[in-house]
Amino acid sequence: MYAFSGTMGHVSVSISYLASLDRNIILMNKTNTTNHNPTNLPQLSNFLERTFHLTEHHTTVRREMLAGLTIFVSMAYILFVNPSILGEAGMDKGAVFTATAFSAVLGCVLMADSISMLAGSVMGTTATSAYVESSAGIAIGGRTGLTALTTGALFVLSLFFSPLLTVVTDQVTAPALIIVGVLMASALKHINWDSFEVALPAFLVIVGMPLTYNISYGIAFGFVTYPILMTAAGKRKEVNPLMWAMLLVFILLLYILAIVPRGNIA
């Protein structure tokens, strides 16, 4: 009987020991899982704080991401307007959509507007920039590069929606074009209308685009007349040498686009 009791005592102690060991193993596994979880929100928050110094700029992750979303929503119209405009010129709408989104991503991630313009030009699309749209994000509270990265990430996601262009008609993009025109017209107040040599080239650019249905023609009218009028007004030294180079380029462009095709038809 004593032997049996001793045996039962050893068994009881062994069971208690194993139960305690099992609890310790479970606790260790939970601790390791918590420490090594790649989606651990506190660790991600600390990483963003160290990278973007959110507290120093008196902002939060939520506010930065909301500002980035606001900027994206404010300028997302360009993803449909740009292909619609350049598609009428014969360019592939899907390719223009991709180039527009990619150049916007590049500009947002690098936080450099000039890089975005350069990338857009190289890829054959118009320059993608955000001045008014960026102010919308700043008004929400965007203060750091996390806002730009959020906007860039949303443009990356938009690359997968290029097939939607097939269902977007000109009637859908027309209101956006009107808004763009209003925003562009707001810059007219900065033109010195009292100076004829400045006002006339600007006026030719403004009326040249809609009358010729060609952006290149409108810009060419301004670049060709500006150096000539400035020289006639005795202000040749105020003309940047690059303007003279652009004068030659646009004269060549007008010759190629307007005169050469007529010669081929004849």
From TrEMBL:
Subcellular location: Endomembrane system
Main subcellular location of this protein, as a coarse class: membrane
Ranges that cross the membrane: 66-85, 97-123, 144-166, 172-191, 203-229, 241-260
Record bears the keyword Iron: no
Keywords: Membrane, Transmembrane, Transmembrane helix, Transport
GO MF: purine nucleobase transmembrane transporter activity
Gene Ontology cellular-component terms listed: endomembrane system; plasma membrane
Pfam families in UniProt: Xan_ur_permease (PF00860)
Membrane topology term: Multi-pass membrane protein
Keyword Membrane found: yes
Stated family: Belongs to the nucleobase:cation symporter-2 (NCS2) (TC 2.A.40) family. Azg-like subfamily.
PANTHER family the UniProt entry points to: XANTHINE/URACIL PERMEASE C887.17-RELATED, XANTHINE_URACIL PERMEASE C887.17-RELATED
Protein name: Permease family protein
Source organism per UniProt: Bifidobacterium commune
